[in-house]
Amino acid sequence: MRVSVSAFVILFLSLSFLTSGAFAADLKVKVVDPQSAAVPGAQVSLMSTATETVLKASHSSAEGGISFGNLPSGTYQVRVLAPGFAPQTINVAENHAEVVTIQLHVATATETVVVSATRTPVSAEETGASISTLENGELENMQPVAAADAVRFLPGAIVSASGQRGGLAGLFVRGGDSVYNKVIIDGVPVTEPGGTFDFGTVPLAAADRLEFLRGAQSTLYGSDAMTSVVQVFSRTGTTQVPELRFGADGGNFNTAHGFAALSGARGIWDYNLFADEFNTQGLGVNDNYSNSLQGANAGVRINDSVLFRVRIRHANSRTGIPGEWNFNGQSLLAPDVDARARQNNLLASAELVVNAPSHWQHSLSGYEYNHKRLNEDSVPDRGCDPANFVFFDCFFQELDHINRAGFLYQGDYTPRSWAQTTLGYEFEDENGNFDTQFLTTDFNGNPFTGVSLTHGLRVNHALFVQQRITRGRLSVVGGLRYVHNASFGDRAVPRAAVTFLALRGGETFSGTRLRFSYAGGVKEPTFEASFGITGTFPTNPNPDLKPEENHALEAGVEQSLLGGRFAFSAVYFNNQFHNQIEFESIPPTFVGEYVNVNRSMAHGAEIEFKGRLMKHFELDSAYNYTSTQILEAPLCTPANFCDPLLAAGSPLLRRPRHSATTLLSYLGSRWGANLGGSFIGRRPDSDFLGFGIDHAAGYVRADLGGWYAVRPRITAYLNVENALDRRYNEVVGYPALPVNFRAGVRFRIGGE
C-alpha cells in the first residue's frame, strides 16, 4: 500500500510538472522611449482582458525589461505607466516567442503620467490636482544653475531671490507663504522643519525630472505641504556599455562650470555617479558664489519582484551677501563687503520595493537629511551705532545644524485597473541646533556681546490612506492623514477630489473635464517657536502652539483640443490660512513667545494653455491672478512698532496680483532649444530699514537656451539668462543679475 501511495504521489507531481510546462509560460516585456532607449522604473501591470483584474505588477529594470512567469494560456493586457510619457496598453498572448517591446510615446497635453499627485504613477487628468513637470530634455535645454532657475517658469510659481547667484530664493504659490512648500529630493524631505527652503543653492545636476504640485497636499506629504510640493528625481543608468558624460562651460562675470557623470546598467545592477562644480564672481562687490555637488543613484534588482535602491547627494556652497543696497533702482546703501553664507547639505535614502503578493506593491524607505548653514558678518562697514539706532551692519555669526531622519512604508493595493488603495506609515526624527553670536555696543557706546541658542527635538508619526477610483467618465480620489506631532499633538488632514468628463467632444473640442477638490494643509512651528531661545535676548518656549492650517478649495474646467494635442484649463482656488504664528513681546522685559493669532486668505485663478505646436515643439503658458489679505493681526499695532504693511487689511507681502509664465521648448535629434518667460507684476514689499519703501516694481525676465550636436557624441550649448537685460528686484533691496550667458561643450564616451 505504501508503494502504491508513493507511486501515486510521484505520478501526480510529474503530471503537474508536465502540465505546468505545457500550459504555462513566461512573458517578457521591454519598455522603450520614442528613441528606443530603455525606460527604467516604469510601472508594468499584467491584466485580465475580460475582468480588468490586475494579475501581476512590477517595475521595469534599468534596461527596461520585466518578466512575468507561469502564465496560463490566454490573452492578456499589458499596461505601462511611466512618468513623463502617455499611458500605454496592449494585448499580448502568454506564448509570445520573443520579447514584447512596448514603445512609449510622448504624452499629449492631457495624458502625462505623474507620481507626486497620488504617490503612484497615474495620468494627471485623473488626479484632480494641478501639476506641472520638467522632463529630462527640458532640463538639458535650460541648464539651470539652481532649482530656482527652473521652477520660476512653471505655472503658478513666484520665485523671490534675495540677490544674485546663491541668494536666498523663496517660492510663493497661490498666495501662501514661502514656508508653505514641501520639497523632496530623491525621496528625502529637505525643507527646514516648519521653515523655508532655499531654492537658490540647490543644483539640479543629474536630475531626470521635476514635478511641481500645487494646492494643499498634507494628506499625502504631511507638514509644510500647505500650498505646494516640489519633487526632484535623479537619473538612473540604463546602458549596458558604461557611459561617461562630461563637459564644461564659461561665461561673463568670470563664470566657470564643469561636470561629469558615469552611468550604466548590467545584469541586476544599475548606477549613476555624478559630480558638478560651479563658480562665479558675480556682478559687483561681494557677489561671488560657488557650489560643488557629488552624488550617486545605484540599484540592484534582486528578482523581477524585488528592487533595492540607494541615492546620495552632497552639496557644499559659499555665497557672498552684499545685502540690501539697491531699491527699485535707487542705491540707498553701499553693498556689504564681507557678509557671507555657507551651506553643507547631505541627503541619503535607501528604498526596498517588493511587488508581491498579487495586486500589492510595498515600498519601505529610510532617509536622512543633514543641513549645516553658517551666516556671518565680521566687519561693520555699513554702520553699527545702537546709540543712534543704526543697525545696518553689526557683527554676527549664526550656525544652524538641522537633521531630519526617518522611514516610510507605503503599500499600494490594485485589484482592478480602475481602483487603487494606498496606505502608509511615516516616522520622522527632527533635530535642530541654532547658535547665534553677535558683537555690538550698547546705547552708551560700550562693547556688548550677545548670544542666542535654540535646540529642539521632535519625534513624529503619521498614518495615511488614499482611495482612487476611475470608472467611465468619473475619477474620485479621497484620502486622510492622521498626524501625531511632538509639538502640536494630533491632527486629521483630509483630501477629496472629483474629476468628471462632462463632454467627450470630437476632433476639435476633444473632451471637457470638470474638477473639484477640498484639502487641508498643516505646518508645524519652527524650532524657535516651539522650543524658545536662550541667551542674551531670550524667548519663552510655547509647547501649546497649534499648527498653522490651510482650508483649500479648488474648482476648474479643462478643455482638450484637437484630439488632445492642446489643453486649456481655468482653475479657481481659495485658501483660508488659520492659526498663523506671530511673535508677542511682553513688556517691561520684552521677553515674549510665539503665539497663534494671525489669519489670512488668498484666492484667485490660474489659466493655462499647453500643448504640442508641431512634432517637436511644446508650449506651456499660464496667467495667474491672486488676491490676498491679512484678516487678523492683533499684535501688529503702532505701539509695537509694527510695519503697517503687516497689519490687518493689507495684502500679503511679495505676492503679486498679476503674474504669468511661458515655456516654449524644441526637442529634436540634432538640436534643442527653449524660451522661458516670467512676468511678475508690482507687489507689496518692505525694506524693513526705515526707508519707507513699500513695494517691489514689476518686471519681465526672459531666458534662452539651446544645444546642437556637432558630432554624435559632441554637443555644443548656450544659455542666456535675463536676455532682455532688465534691472529689477525680486526682493526689494536686492538687485537681480543683468544679462548673463554661459557657453560650453559636453562629450559622451561609451553608452549605446
The CATH topology of the largest domain is given as Maltoporin, Chain A
The geometry reads as globular
Quickly count the domains.
2
* Assembly state: single chain
The name of the CATH superfamily of the largest domain reads: TonB-dependent receptor, beta-barrel domain
CATH 2nd-level architecture of the largest domain: Beta Barrel
**Compute the gyration radius: what is it?**
28 Å
Q: Helicity level, as a percent range?
A: under 10%
Question: What is the number of strand segments?
Answer: 45
Q: What fraction strand?
A: over 45%
Any idea of the CATH class of the largest domain? Mainly Beta
The main β sheet shows up as: 22 strands, antiparallel, barrel
The helix-and-strand class reads mainly beta
How many helices? The count is: 5
Stretches where pLDDT falls below 50 for ≥5 residues? 1-23
Give average pLDDT, whole number: 91
Task: Give the terminus-to-terminus CA distance.
Answer: 64 Å
What does this structure look like?
- By secondary structure, the chain is mainly beta.
- It has two domains: 81 residues, Immunoglobulin-like; 523 residues, Beta Barrel (Maltoporin, Chain A).
- It contains five helices and 45 strands.
- It has a 22-stranded antiparallel beta barrel. A five-stranded mixed beta sheet has the order 10-15-16-13-14.
- β33 and β34 form a beta hairpin.
- The chain starts with a helix and ends with a strand.
- The N terminus is likely disordered.
